Amino acid sequence: MVVVGGGVIGLSAAWKLADRGVSVTLVDDRPGEAASWAAAGMLAPVTEVHYGEEPLLALARTSADLYPQFVDDLERASGLPAGYSRSGTLAVALDADENAVLKELHLFQLRLGLEVERMKSAACRDLEPGLSSSVRGGILVPGDHQIDNRLLLAALRAACEHGGVHFVNDRVAELNGREAVEEAVTEDGVRIRCRTVVLAAGCWSGSLKGVPEQALPPVRPVKGQILQVRPLHPVPPLEHSIRGTDAYLVPRGDGRVVVGATVEELGFDTRVTAGAVYELLRAARRMVPSVDDMELIETSCGLRPGSPDNAPMIGPSAHDGLVIATGHYRNGILLAPVTADALSAFICDGELPENVAPFTPQRFSRRPR
Ligand code: GLY
């Protein structure tokens, strides 16, 4: 079988399928270098929850619960660290309005039975001495963890290689087969016979030739610009990911801090803009003033695969043999374990697990495109 796309979803699926004995060819001209590379690695089902997205929350919590085992297995299979950290997340408010929003959010989270703790201003700063004295309050979410997405990608790539996944550095341009998938053809003209294709090409998944229109996932690019800073002088290190209204900060174990991210509907534009860098740094230093004296070591940009309802599409399509795994939007890293398990259950056992039933691509097939 062929996996189209070597981001976190394609690599996780390829690894799990190869582990089940499936012969897998993964096609990507730059595996691990697109949205998964630019991510922050937040495993944050609770702090990413939005009103009305309760089904997605359930899927995200399932995947977060799978993470420790996923990482253990991955580190064993790859021989590499995956960079998983159980440091929690602290959402903070910087003025009375933001604090009122957090109060409402906290009530919503409690109604959903989530493990969250409302924190007063002083308690926030006791927990994180680097926070600004303007912090008015917060919500501590101990179960929202993080993973270094770049270590994760390297470990997945190594686990795939050890598991016998064949990598083709190219792009799939077209699928052949009238009634069902028979062959994948790359841009360089390489032909790969296959009866199953997993389409995990992120925001590029909506335009594969040779596939009936109604079988393609309705996915679009959502631009995210993201930065990394590093202290030049000793400062209190952040122990938690910090989430504000306009930005978040995710500390890495080596002192680097990831600052993200914009959410922009600008098509396939991946240019980093001065305005975005300015706004992200402004928001970050309002929360953590020592950002001012940090070195800006990286600016980057990824294109999240957005779907019409912000939830992923996982499962069979309207074209026989074409299986979809995209649309993970802001949660690709988090949803990798549950997606990979669902794909391997579907492809190896013929059964899509209950927990992904609300997220099949067919939910969009009756809508006009
Ligand atoms: N999950 C964080 C982001 O998409 O920016």
Q: What count of domains describes the coordinates?
A: 3
Number of strands: 20
User: Structural class from helices and strands?
Assistant: alpha+beta
Helix content: 25-40%
CATH superfamily of the largest domain: FAD/NAD(P)-binding domain
- In the CATH hierarchy, the architecture of the largest domain is 3-Layer(bba) Sandwich
Radius of gyration: 21 Å
The ligands found in this model are: glycine
Q: Going across the major beta sheet, what is the strand order?
A: 6-7-5-15-16-17-14-18
What is the name of the CATH topology of the largest domain? FAD/NAD(P)-binding domain
User: What letter string, H or E per element, gives the SSE order?
Assistant: EHEHEHEEHEHEEHEEEEEEEEEHEEEH
User: Approximately how much beta-strand content do the residues carry?
Assistant: 15-25%
Tell me what the structure shows.
It contains 8 helices and 20 strands. It has 369 residues and is of the alpha+beta class. The protein has 3 domains: 207 residues, FAD/NAD(P)-binding domain; 54 residues, no CATH class; 87 residues, D-Amino Acid Oxidase, subunit A, domain 2 (D-Amino Acid Oxidase, Chain A, domain 2, 2-Layer Sandwich), CATH 3.30.9. The strands form 4 sheets. It has an 8-stranded mixed beta sheet with strand order 6-7-5-15-16-17-14-18. β19 and β20 form a beta hairpin. The longest helix is centred in the N-terminal third of the chain and has 25 residues. The chain starts with a strand and ends in a 20-residue tail after the last helix. Bound molecules: glycine.
